[in-house]
Amino acid sequence: MSAAGSRETFPGTGDRMTAYQTLEQRFARLAALEGAAGILGWDAQTLMPDGAAEARGDQLAILRGLAHEILTAPEAAEDLAAAERASGLESWPAANLREMRRAQAHATAVPRDLVEASSRAVSRSEVVWREARRDADFARLEPHLAEVLRLQREIGQAKGAALGLDPYDALLDSYDPGMRRAVIDPLFADLTSWLPALIARAREMQAARPAPLPLTGPFDVAVQRELGLKLMEAVGFDFTRGRLDISLHPFCGGATDDVRITTRYDAADFGRALMGVLHETGHALYEQGRPAAWRHQPVGAARGMSLHESQSLIIEMQACRSREFFTFLAPLLRAAFGRSGPEWSAENLHALNTRVAPGFIRVDADEATYPAHILLRYRLETAMIAGDLAVRDLPGAFNDGLRELLGLTVPDDRVGCLQDIHWPSGAFGYFPTYTLGAMAAAQLFRAARSAEPALPGCLAEGDFGPLRGWLRSNVHEVGSLLGTDDLLTRATGAPLGTASFRAHLEARYLGDARG
Amino acid sequence: MSAAGSRETFPGTGDRMTAYQTLEQRFARLAALEGAAGILGWDAQTLMPDGAAEARGDQLAILRGLAHEILTAPEAAEDLAAAERASGLESWPAANLREMRRAQAHATAVPRDLVEASSRAVSRSEVVWREARRDADFARLEPHLAEVLRLQREIGQAKGAALGLDPYDALLDSYDPGMRRAVIDPLFADLTSWLPALIARAREMQAARPAPLPLTGPFDVAVQRELGLKLMEAVGFDFTRGRLDISLHPFCGGATDDVRITTRYDAADFGRALMGVLHETGHALYEQGRPAAWRHQPVGAARGMSLHESQSLIIEMQACRSREFFTFLAPLLRAAFGRSGPEWSAENLHALNTRVAPGFIRVDADEATYPAHILLRYRLETAMIAGDLAVRDLPGAFNDGLRELLGLTVPDDRVGCLQDIHWPSGAFGYFPTYTLGAMAAAQLFRAARSAEPALPGCLAEGDFGPLRGWLRSNVHEVGSLLGTDDLLTRATGAPLGTASFRAHLEARYLGDARG
Fold this sequence. Notes:
The structure is a homodimer of 515-residue chains.
Chain A: H1 19-46, H2 53-72, H3 74-85, H4 91-109, H5 112-134, H6 138-163, H7 167-175, H8 181-208, H9 221-235, E1 242-246, E2 252-255, E3 258-263, H10 270-288, H11 304-319, H12 323-337, H13 346-352, H14 370-386, H15 394-406, H16 432-451, H17 455-459, H18 465-474, H19 484-492, H20 499-510
Parallel strand pairs in A: 1-3
Antiparallel strand pairs in A: 2-3
Helix pairs in contact in A: 1-2, 1-3, 3-4, 5-6, 6-7, 8-20, 9-10, 10-11, 11-16, 12-13, 14-15, 14-16, 16-20
């Protein structure tokens, strides 16, 4: 089949393929291109020698460009229209067609030269950001970030016009299909109304208790890796369809049937890699658990970044920072590192892993203060996209917001608004999904425990079977058949809300020690 | 630029691009696709989890298919014709245009359905071959190999018709541009006339001397790896543009500015990996040394498999099995493995690495008997492509030939005609390049030593500078500017011949111990 996807007879039958069948072939080709790009991107972060970076950029650019052509070909539009007019598709194919249309609409909404201008602006901006952050020099980044923002606003407007959405909602939709400001605003307003007080109260209660006993390294990195692999296996990672490696910034990537997660080891602190591996394994479980029959089709894709983050956090935060899990983990750690003593008790280890400590850096934030970093970023980026906040005013607005939400005074922009790559790389509409994910994780875990009352007891024995089974049925194998809120309603009885998240934080950080 | 390569204005000047400039853009895109495929192929042999194989097959198939479309687009043919009509190209661009035409001619010669039929036949054949070889069951492979051969003959005829060549020459041309049976036949006839006697004489002389002292393992694999890296560095491998890993079958692959070689370790015998790494490093030096300004264009490519093999063998065989090199290597090995004793002398190690011992397996053959395996395969595959040898008669013809050339009687087809993957995977026209490469290696090394009389002395000190510098100027940086024979004539004073190879084998295996 040519890149243009001309209608060819369906092999073996002599019959003409339907428009829908032709689209399935087109999207299978897109999935193959996406998989190729995924492995090349993973390789660039893990193994690629420095001198290969420019050529790798060329390779990824051509794959993206060819995918864009395949998705925006006139024949694709014709086939979509024909398939949408036809009748008789069952639920999965019908949902697949819906997702095909969504992908094509996003791709065709933005003119090619705007895509290329944005890509060039982002490349320049990312390079300058690394230096600006290192030198705490916002003025250096400002013109580049302003250009990136200008182009993202144009993209948002173009997509919005095509999809019938406001610019921010259009950008958000590409990260989290169906998510809207109208959904997020009330949820985040609710969060803002009680989170600061919860954080303050948690810290009071923490200060009133004896501090947990610290652990002293070093902790052999080879042992850390073996531990990580063992936990991945316990959680349910399929090593015939994935692997664990090292990169500067941990992530979950790769391709279908080839899910590659990474971590980074610190010989002084094994907890970072351990919890990081559990986090990425949550993501990986989702990817590996997608509906097999549809895994090369759009309806087989994971349903957006909020649900994806709910899967990483349901493992890392809900399950693996529970008191029950530390009953299982503590002896494993003692044996692996050859340690003993009161600081290695399950109780103490759990306390060390459930501290509340406001800080400047989002990626280092604890479970309770993390959402404050997101509330701030959501406020700022919605304002920037709306044209209500100029880039030159970003540092001031950021610092004011952090003081308000966490009571901290930013000493320099390196640990302030320059800390994250998202905006310099053009990712507006991504930040809220972290906390929407945390909320969904709590909501799903609550429902899982209702359905599987033995779940906490199983975690105390390192048995993830019940949790994994429930997640497979309720999330992973649904793929993109349902939108996020329909999936949550089916799984938990209600669309996304804050109640479960609040109850969870109160139980873990304000309640009895069993949280 | 679209996949079809429409003529767009040359960025920044407002002028229309010439047909040649448009072609350069088209071929740069092809190079990026080729690089992507190269990394994915490398990954499949080194790191990919088993469950990802099918999806990887899809990814590679789409990359090949898209590259084929770009190369065979009507606009490419139009631009080639226009560029060929135009005048004023300097030597490098003119050679680039010549190579572009050659690539396009090969690609357009074969109808799409023939390409696909051949690809499917090869996939099936390769799977059956592994089982057939394991069970020494030629009858099982026969129908599949017959189908592969049938399709390769058709491809040879199609290419031959388009290129004005006989079918075998057309197939050969895709592995070794410009190489022809008319060149190979006299060279191989000459080889056949003296090689068996040389082998017999070498074995007589060997038997008349005390046998070299064996080495006893085990040899720590981590130490072997460090040794390999150190030697790669000495030879001149650039680790900012490449890496060393492990695979089942060692190879040199990857992409431009990202040359990835592999090896395989045997704790009982460090020599296999050591010489293997040196062999692949020779290939890598060629790839890394290609003319930088043209490295994404056809004229910047290495000039065919014979020259490529000359580069691996000039390092492994010419340089690194010389007596001088063992003066450098022996103390390195003693220190690395913590050994001493007479068996670790440079003299003894050199003797161990220059044994002549006819065997059944080509890949295990020593330098003197290896060409006999190639002479046999060349004879058989030219006959198969000409229709003069039926697949059903292959085992008998193979066994007769091996008895004639090496005096060995094949006990079963697993160590006979089933040992190599080449024919089952459709590679007809590849085998002769191994020995053409060995001949070219000897011829080039002789010329290098003439130009750099200090070369052997430098090797005795582990200094590859003079050899590397000579190879860069005379081979690597020439890319495909010149055809193989013109390159050899420029570098050595004569086109490819057997004289230097014969002189080398006689000196090393029949001469004084300094060979």
